[in-house]
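As a warm-up, study this chain.
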Amino acid sequence: MSSTARREAPNEVHAAVGGLVLGALYVIMVIVVDGVVMKLTWNWFVPVIFAGAPHLNLAQAIGLGLVPTAFFGSARPWKKSTPEESVALMKGAAFKYVTILVLGYIIHAYFL
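Now compare it with the structure written out below.
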């Protein structure tokens, strides 16, 4: 019985480590995919709307994607709310995100 318990313990450790590695890879993949989407969207729209706005590289796009989360908390705070609260929170989050983009452009254009 004790030999069976000794064999199961390493398997549990390997499973936990494997889960952590897969979770970390998933998070990295989501961050990179989000950065690519943000980069493509920014480079497609912003230089056309705001003449002279710079194009972003991947690292800048990932950083820009993390700014709202750093300032305002979770990327999806409306997950545990009623439908009415969800709509209000999404509108607020969109307004905050656009505000950060506009302020970033103004700071870059006039102060840097």
